[in-house]
Amino acid sequence: MEDALPFIIIFLGLPWIIFHYITKWKTAATITGDDEQLLDELYHLAKRLDDRMDTVERLVASDNPEFNSARLIHDRETDNQPLRELDRLLAEKKGTRP
């Protein structure tokens, strides 16, 4: 029995441990539908907040000429480029064009 124990450990125990953790890894790596919906909602909220921030900064800048916001100094197109990239990726995923 003592001679068979290493073979049992190598041929049964080791593959079981490997396949167990591979299965755990694959199930943990997937994103659920609820997670995806939450990410979509957070993305849309971030986009709305970015638009609101731009509006508030434009209003403050029009009332107070001395106001210099870092966001207003930079090009607005450059500021919104990451959001456009996310829009494009979401449209590709859903099968529609933006």
Amount of beta strand: under 5%
Number of domains: 2
Contiguous uncertain segments of 5+ residues? none
Averaged pLDDT, please? 82
What is the N-to-C succession of helices and strands? HHHH
The number of distinct β-strands equals 0
Please summarize the sheet with the most strands.
none
Rg from C-alpha positions?
26 Å
Through-space gap between termini: 68 Å
Task: Please give the share of residues in helix.
Answer: over 70%
Q: Judging from the principal axes of the Cα atoms, what is the shape?
A: elongated
Helix count, per DSSP? 4
What class, by secondary structure content?
mainly alpha
Oligomer: single chain
Commentary on this structure:
InterPro entries: Phageshock_PspB. With 98 residues, the protein is an all-alpha fold. It folds into two domains: 1-30; 31-98. Helix content is 81%, strand content 0%. It has four helices and no strands. It is elongated and about 90 Å long.
